[in-house]
Amino acid sequence: MRKSLILTVIFLISLIIPQTAAYAQDDGEKKWYDMIDFQGYLESDLRFIVDDWRGPTDGDGYKFQMNRNDLDLRLGITPFETVRAVIDTRLRMYGFSEADTMQGLNSRETVDPFAIYLDEAYVHVQALGWEGLDLKVGRMVQNWGTADQFNPTDNVSARDLSDPLDSFAKVPNQMVEIDLYPADWLTLNFIWVPVFKPSMLPPSANLGFAIGYDQNGCFKDLPTPPLKVEYMEELMNMFGAIDPCSLNFIDPQMQIVSPDLKIENSQAAAKAKFLVGPLDFSLSYYYGRWSFPVPATGYAGVDANAEDPNMLDVKYIVQLVYPRIHVAGFDFSYSADWFFDVGFVGEVAVFFPEKVDFALRAFQGGSPIFDKMNNNVPKTPFVKATGGFDYTFTSWLYWNTMYVRGFLDEFNDIYGIHNYIVMAWEFKFLEDELQFRLAGVFGPDDLSGSFQPRITWIVVPSVELFLQGQFYFGDEDSTNPLDFRAKDKLGWKPVGRNIVALKARVSW
Amino acid sequence: MNKISFTYMLLAALLVFAPACGWGIDGTEMLDEKWPIIDGDAELEEEIEAVELEAIEGDTLAGQWLMMVEFTGTILIATLPHPIVIRDLFLVNINEEQTAAELTFCDQIQAITDGFSMGATENPQALKDALGEARFSIEIANAKKVAAQKIAWLWGLKDVSDPINSDIPMTPEDAADKRIWDQDKDDNPGVTVHILAPPGYRYMVRRAIWDMSEGQLSEDGQWIEGTAAITIEQGAMAAVDGEGNPSTLLTSAAPIADDTEVPNEEGKVLPNTYRLRRVSGYDCEKMIANYKGIFLIEDEAAEE
Fold first, then answer.
1. Where do the structural domains in chain A lie, given as residue ranges?
2. Quick one: CATH architecture of A141-507?
3. CA of B238, closest CA in chain A: separation in Å?
4. Inter-chain residue contact A257 with B27, CB threshold 8 Å
5. What is the predicted ipTM?
6. Is residue A74 less than 8 Å (CB to CB) from chain B?
7. For B196-241, how does the pLDDT look when each residue is reduced to its tens digit (9 = 90+)?
8. pTM (2 d.p.)
9. Cross-chain CB nearest to A367 (options B24, B116, B241)
């Protein structure tokens, strides 16, 4: 396996070099500025939390959440007709000072923290030895599927959910992509991703693993692990017999167990896309890892506090893993010109997951006091699917509705796969200068949901102002802290805060 | 599609999906790597040296004996039962008439054998001394065996009209009960027991009822052995934490239950026992030092 991969890479490089040399000779008179194109945007994003009940403690809220500025610079270089390099960088200024000591005030990085992102950096070689063969190598993201946002067949690139207002973002990764165009109606994609990268989670997700405290700062509950309710009752009774104020939880840890950097942990994907008149459809396959963390173990260690004989120190550690998966997918999009030009989309993905058995062990003074295990993710294949349609009523009214089986992060663990209705309405006024969009997700299984209103004002072309919000409804806390399943998917605190945002963006 | 191409497709599908069959992430294995449970009893195995006792010749049972009452049961801490062994050690003097054996308490050894230390207690010396002073007797039948009988052994209680059947004070609400006796004379109600974890002291009363079978004399005349169904009740009047502050948590004495009807891992039902060994020249200190080599060495031999 390893040998054949090395040979493949050598073969691909040998194809690129002569191609590049040939184009250099042909395009000798091309000016440098003809070879580059430049795009980007500047975005300012100010967000305010409009609740005080969805934070880590009651009363935390009504404050600024974000004060961010992004400068995105995307450079395309086309030195030859069939070779293109893309570099997409982003300078992100966070806008909140992190200086909490006098020394911190000496550093610009602390007072005005920033980060530099490299969102894309790849080379695209077309007609590589054969007119119908393209190669892309480098850092990029893949977007598979035909539906809007909820794409069960889209598993190559991990999600970047760190920004709750941008659920389209992906985590870029190094990969090799070969595209074949054997016929006008057929495109074949083959992708190899050497190293796994996980999805990014919103900051609020940490609340899902936080220790609960009451108003007096005393222990209230543990983050619910995927254990059977009867096991949880035993565990909580054990802690329940102890004065909750005497429990001192020391820095609860969520440890990520990342796959080794072995070639066996590479990801591979293939897709065949067919164009048949107004119908596009794809058959796809992915082998890799589920990019959202799944709890596999829990450890609680209780020891007497060295300084205060009335206190007990509790160390709580959860290990999270990324199970392997095979995914067989089918997606389609169809524009029904015979039926009011309604656009239909659909995706079905069959997941063949790696089984995950969750175990929790507690020790007191080094001696085991609790040791239970149950299945968290069965190896039984499961289906995630999306189906829907969109329709443009008039030039100023657009409607999009989808049924979603399985939310972005659902993986048939003990919580299971749930059903959702996703809907978006768009109204445009003043020759599209003013737009109003109302999008929402509703979970009929637990009657929770979220909605995102947005007003867009296109001041002049390429200059936009946004006033938007994100709001959740449903139970913020689990209805049964002992039951991993007893949470409202979209109402649960770890999903996020109710916010309003004011954004300005200039694109070029 | 012809048969051959279908076969190739099937083979390809099997190659792709077959690896999933052996997949699995086992949380227990992961825990074993980082936080293993060491097999075996949590109580440290201790090598016990046998104590050689001379055979005491005598035509009657009269004289000095050592007695160990061994209780095997569960202590309910945080609603979870933990195995507990309680060994009560007494110096015994059987009178010349061979009608009664007077018991002098020496010590009580408790061990929660799964290693759980929460709720474990020890008895302060003042309590041991007080219990030692409160001698009580068991009946000897026909000058040759311990009679089948029911005995109530009380801690921190006096003037109980029916020691076996009367209700005894159990909660802080009963603290005004006149029968509660500051037996260890420390100005706290009942007797004071030292709680090891979480640290503190509990002021309590205790009643152990021994429903004893007949104790038979061994052929060599050195041992008397019998079984006993033992019931233990503990009532707490108050408790303080390690810093002397009142503690509601520590006021609850963990219930202790007899589990002798429950078969052990090997399917055997092991009753509570009482055993007496004829000796001479023993005091409490010597008994506490030697009891394992006298009473437990036999258990080890039996296990082997």
1. 141-507
2. Beta Barrel (2.40)
3. 16
4. no
5. 0.83
6. no
7. 777 789 999 999 999 999 999 988 889 999 999 999 999 999 988 7
8. 0.70
9. B116
